[in-house]
Write a structure and sequence with these properties.
The complex is a heterotetramer.
Chain A lengths: L12 E7 L2 E8 L7 H5 L4 H9 L6 H16 L7 H29 L3 H22 L8 E2 L2 E2 L22 H21 L2 H7 L7 H6 L5 H5 L6 H4 L20 H26 L19 E8 L4 E8 L5 E7 L1 H5 L2 H5 L5 H11 L3 H5 L1
Antiparallel strand pairs in A: 1-2, 3-4, 5-6, 6-7
Helix pairs in contact in A: 2-3, 3-4, 4-5, 4-11, 4-14, 5-6, 6-11, 11-14
Chain C lengths: L1 H6 L4 E4 L5 E5 L4 H10 L4 E9 L4 E8 L10 E8 L5 E3 L9 H11 L2 E3 L41
Parallel strand pairs in C: 2-5, 6-7
Antiparallel strand pairs in C: 1-2, 3-4, 4-5
Chain D lengths: L2 H28 L22 E3 L15 H5 L5 E7 L6 E9 L8 H5 L5 E3 L14 E2 L1 H8 L21 H6 L3 H5 L25 H8 L9 H7 L11 H5 L5 H7 L2 H10 L4 H16 L1
Antiparallel strand pairs in D: 1-4, 2-3, 3-5
Helix pairs in contact in D: 7-10, 7-11, 11-12
The chains are: A mainly alpha, B mainly alpha, C alpha/beta, D mainly alpha.
Chain lengths: ~375, ~400, ~160, ~290
């Protein structure tokens, strides 16, 4: 199956042995999108690596930037102080990005299961979101917005909006989008796809990952939470300023495709909660968004392993500095790469249609797998 | 004209008629393809907040023509190692089987290509062709996706054929004939809203689901499931051969919708121009209370028009198309809403749910009908009134 | 994390900037340390990679504990120094199935061989790749470079 | 499977299907299409949009702002900027021989703009950069300048303004840009500039002639610089027929310019249209040059 196949989310090749329609053996073959990110980083200065991190997981680019930027800031220690406002804006855009990424995950999963219309709805709402991102950062998909020590620019004027902005302002103000999302998008998804019996037939009891295996296979994000382990690095390893926000972690029960789907769907709502809190803070506290940084960034010698909760799971970044402007080594731990290992474990015994469902439910992005 | 026609020997007459009807049916199939394809694209677009095709023609409504022309001039790619004969012939067999359905569909009073006694059986028979075509294309393509799609398609169509016929039997029992024209007439006799849809609601739902499965349409489009088996049995096709498959799909859709309209919605039956006009005249006359000239004139004209074969045809045809496309719309609506089922769930649904339900429907229909017929002549009491009501109902 | 201190007093301990603990062990005791960590509840292998220090390679395995109640969880980085040429080491992927592909990637990029790995092949690079192990510092890409595009006047 | 669960399942399934059908029907019937008819209608581009890096020109002096310092080349993560320069033996300044951006590899990260110490680079709003030939995606200095004119502005003539600056039409000669190119009448590279952020403040010869016309009327007689200007511009500025406003001022694109080149006309222009601040500035500047000549 693949590399050119409509539902492999990129260029993934799944070698599958079939007995009739039942899968007996499956192995992913990756590397078709390898772009030498880690080698490339060794030749770039620290700021220059940021746009490349966008390109690993292109559906959640801001979260990758967050991982790398915060790792580098940790290397600097106290030498770089990021302004409060920048931290809040980072959380704000990261959570918006998480909603966008989850929307895409749900949409493509629905498409894999044959429902085309939800996918188009996902695009419709994501477009609104991308207009917001475009206004904030200047890019639609690859933003290059975070900087070491702050952000490129403050939020543009009028983007926050007021808490009673409705759907008509969904692509103009963040409040407008969040209200539209809470009142329209989320219930629509819930009724149209999650409540649909065919969808439930297709996903419940398919691709069950037990909690033990979820830990053993190093899964994270929605996959480990779908298996019933309440593990979220935003809570368990509070990076940035996530300890100041109030949100819950949804957990699944059975660890099947439906639970992973449901966790994602719930998480979007929690993200919108965080966004609301951040918006409330931001509309009251203006200020700088860029801290004082030297013109040439030379972190002191040292190494740091920074883990954040990306949209798909644990995005972590292992940066080693030798005191020069270029990182000595950057290791990118991408969740999709790790999650894809589970596919050979989950698929045997299922029908070929379930392979697609499982692949969709662990939500891989091949840009991130191959880096 | 008539003399000229009579001067032709009867054998040749038959041939000429056959050719004429066949050409008309094929043309009608093409018309259906254009309309249904465009409807599909537009309806899906509207459901997804899009506008759909927009450039070709006014708001893109002649897009199918442009597509067909494009597909005509495309290269016919024939992959290596295909079974050439099967590969080439398969789309045309599918096309044939789709068009054959239209042979027995009554378009308007008396307007039917072949008024067969065994209409329903004929339908059941020719759907078998489609299975053969799909399997030929899947096997001939020499492609794993095609083969899987073909196997799925064959399994699905064969198992749903049973259910399909079972769901129709209720209607046949009520009409007492396998001939489609008779079924329409039986519904017309039952008066306004005497369609078999109401008494046979179970049969109708089963028929709807089974025909969707028979048509390989979502949520049962397993044979071409694009996210699993790239494009199923027609993965390897391109150019005009692929276009023939597309043609087949939409003609088939319209054909099954036409059958559904005939069986359950009374086919061409519906108020004709004459009936409307006479009814209008009756209203203007105040149902006889204040007869006036205008009302009488309109009513008389209506009575005159009632005898007009041409107008009855036109109106019958209109009602027929309306009902057919109601079903086409329904199929599209369902397609763009629901996700796809899995093959084992499909089989479960077919054999474990729809078949028992349709058998139960047959049983229910026969029992009620027996009771209703048996008690037809009894004096009017509350009990017998209920039974009489049932008798109308069935 | 004191359990490691007690068990392996000879290993080198240090702390990373973000509070993670780092333990540098000799190659022979790697398996022992990993098993000790595993038994102590560190059942989650976050990442496994290597660093090329030009004179040696350092294998890093980051292990952490999945405990939903624990806030501010710390991970252990087990480090092993290896020679640059022909490095072989015990594979942890039977203990941590999640490290399977990370080990394959480390082999792919640094050339470290893992004994007992269930599927020891290249992963990101093609199986027939002959160009060496790209993340080594002395790796030279011998493939032809894409030429710079040159255009002198606007042609359209 | 018991009878209850049999029919219960059917009921649940039917209910959920009808919910779904209801949603799609409502979407179909009651909500408008969100399609943007792209080649006909362009969506809004926000102020921060990153299209293509372009070179700005100081419209007051007519000089490009780039000093070939090479900061952008250093900052570029993908090395798409080619800069070749030599040192002018007289002025001891760097002169760029070649400055090109290979847009086939540019990833629009904005670092060159941030690195530029002279505010010379700007991210344009043009996003339709498709070319048949990848070699046509190499944008040379002339192209960058020509396209960057839309985003250029006239700087305040402070004490730093050079006295012997190049006359304002020089970049015309350098880039071979016609008014059509600058105003992007043909939609040569994407869309016309937007008002947000970078409002184009253009030299009079690049503004619509309609606006220049009232200033031109009273001072036709005094046009000492007219020959010089016509000498420089005619080949590069053919009569532009695409713009109906230009047809009325067919007397030659140079004439209104020269008319504006006097102090009096500049003042008159402010009287007629007080919002044309740029015009007055440039007018005075040009006037000084007139005096010198």
């Amino acid at each position: 199956m693949g590399p050119q196949h409509p539902s492999t989310h990129g260029v993934l090749r799944l070698m599958v042995k079939l007995d009739g329609e039942t899968v007996t053996w499956c192995e992913p073959d990756i590397g078709y999108l390898h772009r030498c990110f880690e080698k490339l980083s060794e030749f770039k200065t620290y700021p220059q690596v940021i746009p490349f991190t966008d390109r690993t997981d292109y559906l959640a680019a801001l979260l990758n930037e967050q991982a790398f930027v915060e790792a580098t800031e940790k290397l600097f220690g106290d030498a770089i102080v990021v302004p409060e406002r920048a931290l809040y804006i980072r959380v704000l855009v990261a959570e918006l990005q998480r909603i966008a990424s989850h929307l895409m995950a749900l949409g493509s999963n629905a498409l894999d299961l044959g429902a085309v219309t939800p996918f188009l709805y996902c695009w419709r709402d994501r477009e609104k979101m991308y207009s917001l991102f475009e206004r904030i950062t200047g890019g639609r998909l690859l933003y290059n917005y975070f900087r070491i020590g702050g952000l490129r620019n403050d939020l543009p004027e009028g983007i926050i909006g007021t808490p009673n902005d409705g759907e008509d302002k969904a692509d103009k103000t963040i409040w407008g989008f969040i209200n539209y999302f809470d009142s329209y998008v989320w219930p629509q998804w819930d009724a149209l796809v999650t409540g649909n019996r065919i969808f439930q037939w297709r996903t419940q009891g398919v691709g069950v990952l037990t909690p033990e295996n979820a830990v053993a296979y190093s899964t994270s994000g929605a996959v480990i939470r779908g298996s019933g382990i309440k593990w979220d690095l935003r809570k368990n390893l509070p990076y940035s300023i996530y300890d100041r926000f109030e949100f819950d972690i949804p957990v699944g029960k059975n660890g099947d495709c439906f639970d992973r789907w449901w966790v994602r769907q719930e998480e979007m709502r929690q993200s919108s909660r965080i966004v609301k809190q951040a918006l409330a803070w931001l509309s009251e506290n203006p200020g700088e968004v860029m801290g004082k940084v030297p013109r040439v960034l030379k972190p002191p010698k040292g190494e740091v392993y920074h883990r954040i909760e990306g949209a798909r799971g644990e995005v972590s970044c292992y940066v080693i500095s030798d005191g020069s402007p270029n990182p000595y080594k950057v290791k990118w731990r991408s969740p999709a790469f790790t999650h894809l290992q589970v596919v050979p474990h989950l698929t045997p015994g299922h029908k070929i249609a379930d392979v697609i469902a499982i692949l969709g439910s662990i939500d891989i992005v091949l840009g991130e797998v191959d880096r | 004209m008539a003399e000229l026609w009579n001067s032709i020997p009867p054998t040749i007459q038959v041939w000429l008629l056959g050719f004429g009807k066949g050409t008309l049916i094929l043309l009608w199939g093409l018309v259906n393809f254009f309309v249904a394809l465009m409807l599909e694209r537009k309806i899906s677009a509207w459901m997804q907040n899009r506008v759909g095709p927009w450039r070709a023609g006014l708001h893109g409504w002649i897009q199918p023509l442009a597509d067909l022309l494009k597909l005509f001039v495309k290269e016919y790619i024939e992959p290596r190692n295909v079974d050439k004969w099967l590969f080439v012939v398969a789309p045309f067999i599918a096309y044939l089987s789709a068009n054959l359905i239209w042979l027995i569909v009554p378009f308007a009073p008396g307007a039917v290509a072949t008024n067969m006694d065994i209409g329903i059986i004929f339908i059941a028979a020719i759907t078998g062709y489609d299975v053969i075509a799909i399997f030929m294309s899947g096997w001939g393509s020499n492609n794993k996706y095609s083969l899987l799609g073909a196997m799925r398609g064959a399994a699905q169509m064969i198992s749903y054929e049973v259910t399909l016929v079972m769901s129709i039997i209720g209607v046949v029992m009520m009409a007492g004939s396998l001939r489609l024209s008779d079924i329409v007439l039986a519904q017309q006799e039952r008066g306004l809203f005497g369609w078999f849809l109401f008494p046979q609601i179970i049969g109708f739902v089963v028929y709807l689901i089974a025909s969707l499965a028979e048509l390989n349409r979502a949520p049962f489009d397993l044979a071409e499931a694009e996210s699993e088996l790239v494009s199923g049995y027609h993965t390897e096709y391109s150019g005009f051969r692929w276009a023939v498959f597309a043609l087949t799909e939409y003609i088939h859709l319209a054909g099954w919708s036409a059958i559904a309209a005939t069986l359950f919605l009374g086919g061409w039956s519906g108020p004709t121009l004459g009936q409307i006009a006479s009814g209008l005249g009756n209203i203007i006359n105040g149902f006889g209370y204040f007869t006036n000239g205008v009302g009488t004139a309109v009513g008389d004209w209506g009575l005159m028009m009632m005898g007009s074969t041409v107008w009855n045809w036109i109106f019958g045809f209109m009602w027929f198309c309306l009902k057919t496309y109601l079903f086409v719309f329904l199929a599209m609506w369902i397609r763009w809403t629901l996700p796809r089922v899995r093959i084992d769930q499909l089989m479960d649904l077919g054999w474990k749910f729809l078949l028992p339900v349709s058998l139960g429907n047959i049983f229910l229909t026969s029992v009620l009908r027996y009771i209703a017929l048996a008690n037809d002549g009894l004096p009017l009491t509350i009990g017998t009134y209920t039974i009489r009501l049932l008798g109308w109902w069935l | 994390m004191d359990f490691l201190n007690e068990k392996f007093p000879d290993a080198q301990f240090s702390n990373l900037v973000n509070g993670d603990m780092e333990v540098l062990v000799p190659k022979e005791r790697y398996e022992e340390v990993i098993r000790a960590c595993y038994d102590a509840g560190f059942k989650y292998c976050s990442v496994l990679s290597a660093i090329d220090w030009k004179d040696r390679l350092t294998l890093v395995a980051s292990l952490s504990r999945i405990n939903p109640e624990e806030v501010g969880t710390k991970s252990i980085h087990v480090k092993v120094d290896l020679p640059r040429q022909g490095a072989r080491i015990w594979s942890i992927s039977n203990l941590y199935p999640g490290a399977n592909w990370h080990e394959r990637e480390t082999y792919d990029m640094y050339g470290i061989r893992f004994d007992g790995h269930p599927n020891h092949r290249r992963i990101l690079l093609p199986d027939n790749w002959q160009g060496g192990h790209p993340l080594l510092k002395d790796f030279v890409d011998k493939r032809p470079k894409r030429p710079r595009l040159v255009r002198h006047r606007y042609a359209e | 499977m018991g009878v209850t669960s049999f029919f219960g399942e059917a009921w649940r399934a039917g209910k959920s299907f009808i919910t779904g059908l209801n949603i799609t029907f409502r979407e179909m019937a009651f909500r408008p299409a969100i399609t943007v008819f792209y080649p006909d209608v362009y969506d809004d581009v926000p102020a921060w949009f990153r299209g293509i890096p372009l070179q700005k020109t100081d419209l007051l002096t007519g000089e490009y702002k780039c000093t070939s310092c090479g900061m952008c080349v250093e900052a570029c993560p993908v090395n798409v900027i080619t800069l070749e320069w030599h040192q002018d033996p007289v002025t001891k300044k760097k002169v760029a021989d070649r400055y090109a951006i290979d847009m086939s590899r540019c990833m629009l990260c904005n670092y060159c703009i941030e690195a530029c110490p002279f505010d010379s680079l700007v991210m344009g709003y043009d996003y339709e950069l498709c070319k048949v030939d990848p070699e046509n995606l190499v944008f040379e200095f002339e192209d960058l300048l020509r396209l960057g004119l839309k985003y250029s502005s006239a700087e305040q003539a402070g004490p730093k303004a050079k006295k012997n600056a190049t006359p304002p039409w020089v970049f015309h000669e350098l880039t071979g840009a016609t008014e059509e190119d600058i105003q992007d009448v043909k939609g040569y590279l994407g869309r016309a500039p937007l008002g947000k952020g970078y409002a184009p403040e253009l030299k009079p010869q690049f503004q619509k002639k309609e606006e220049a016309q009232p200033a031109a009327a009273p001072s036709e007689a005094k046009a000492p610089a007219a020959p010089a200007v016509t000498k420089n511009t005619p080949t590069q500025t053919p009569p532009v027929n695409a713009n109906p406003a230009n047809v009325s001022a067919e007397a030659g694109p140079a004439k209104p310019l020269t008319a504006k080149a006097s102090e009096t006309s500049g003042q008159e222009a402010t009287e007629v249209r007080p919002d044309q601040i740029v015009n007055t500035e440039t007018g005075t500047k040009d006037g000084e040059e007139d005096k010198k000549s």
